[in-house]
Automatic annotation (TrEMBL):
InterPro entries: HDAC_classIV (IPR044150), HDACs (IPR000286), His_deacetylse_dom (IPR023801), His_deacetylse_dom_sf (IPR037138), Ureohydrolase_dom_sf (IPR023696). The lineage of its organism: Bacteria, Pseudomonadati, Bacteroidota, Cytophagia, Cytophagales. SUPFAM superfamilies: Arginase/deacetylase. CDD domains: HDAC_classIV. Belongs to the histone deacetylase family. It comes from Thermoflexibacter ruber. Residues 25-290 form the Histone deacetylase domain. Pfam families: Hist_deacetyl (PF00850). This is Acetoin utilization deacetylase AcuC. Gene3D superfamilies: Histone deacetylase domain (3.40.800.20). One of its GO terms (biological process) is epigenetic regulation of gene expression. Keywords: Hydrolase. GO terms for molecular function: histone deacetylase activity; hydrolase activity. The keyword Acyltransferase does not apply.
Length: 300
């Protein structure tokens, strides 16, 4: 059964400009239920992650400032959100959803998180709407508690997974692969194990060709026992921030290829949604919904 983490938490206060992109987290499960792709049994509500698990990845001084809401004004600005208890609670719960998702993925082959993919969070700071790095914490959970010895992170958000790259830069057990817009945020890139920077305006053919020529080789070389897939849909031509020109069908084909590759190679995969900032919320929800539809089609 496809298991999906969903943790609806109202964030207060949240400026109007941030409310629109957050709508997808409410609309996506509604759409999936309405069309019959999933039913209520597919969803699980995670509990908050424990401090012990958070500290496997994030520095204690940073976590103390987060939970006590004492980040400096400069640190708050870098996160992009006004700091609040409800925001921290949301991140801690989303993080636990990704951890629990890894266990479901080990059982069923795949699991998904309606949110997650907070790849701009570093060990000691937050950036780019990310406070805690759910992929990194969940990966460390597998390494420490589930006897997983090799992990591959496939980060296909339009923005480089700079926080994830920094966290695992000296850890050979986790291979970080990021294919992203070269001229997009963050302008100061970290060094992933493999970075592919794409020029502005990259379209379906070039995008998919690079991915299909790269991922099978990585699977052979890395021999991962587990995959994390950050499936941001900000690669779309309709995206306000993406700068690429990938169609919705191209994005769907990207997801199909990644999921089929994991399935064929019998590698459990945990999927997080990542970014999406198209003008029309329907473009964002439909592109994300395709990822869930494909998971059902390919794995179940």
């Amino acid at each position: 059964m496809l298991k999906i983490a969903f943790a609806p938490i109202y964030i207060h206060p949240l400026p109007l400009e941030h409310r629109f992109p957050m709508l997808k987290y409410e609309l996506l499960p509604t759409q999936l239920l309405y069309e019959g792709t999933v039913n209520e049994d597919n969803f699980f509500t995670p509990s908050p992650a424990t401090e012990q698990v958070i500290l496997t990845t994030h520095e204690a001084t940073y976590w103390e400032k987060l939970k006590s809401l004492t980040l400096s004004p400069s640190e708050v600005r870098k996160t992009g959100f006004p700091l609040s208890k409800s925001l921290v609670d949301r991140e801690v719960t989303i993080l636990q959803g990704s951890i629990q998702g890894t266990l479901f993925a080990l059982q069923y082959g795949i699991a998904m998180n309606i949110a997650g993919g907070t790849h701009h969070a570093f060990t000691d700071r937050g950036e780019g709407f990310c406070l805690l790095n759910d992929i990194a914490v969940a990966a460390n959970y597998l390494l420490q508690y589930q006897n997983i010895k090799k992990i591959l992170v496939i980060d296909l958000d339009v923005h480089q997974g700079n926080g994830t790259a920094q966290i695992f830069k000296d850890d050979e057990r986790v291979f970080t692969f990021s294919m992203h817009g070269e001229n997009n945020y963050p302008m100061q890139k970290e060094k992933s194990d493999l970075d592919i920077g794409l020029p502005n305006g990259t379209e379906d053919e070039a995008y998919l060709s690079l991915l299909k020529n790269t991922l099978p080789r990585l699977i052979d070389e890395v021999q991962p026992e587990f995959v994390f897939f950050q499936s941001g849909v900000d690669i779309l031509a309709t995206d306000k921030l993406g700068k690429l020109k990938v169609s919705r069908e191209g994005c769907k084909e990207r997801d199909r290829f990644v999921l089929e590759t994991c399935k064929i190679n019998q590698i459990p995969v945990a999927v997080s949604m990542g970014g999406g900032y198209s003008e029309k919320i329907s473009d964002i929800v439909e592109a994300h919904a395709n990822t869930f539809r494909l998971a059902q089609e390919i794995f179940f």
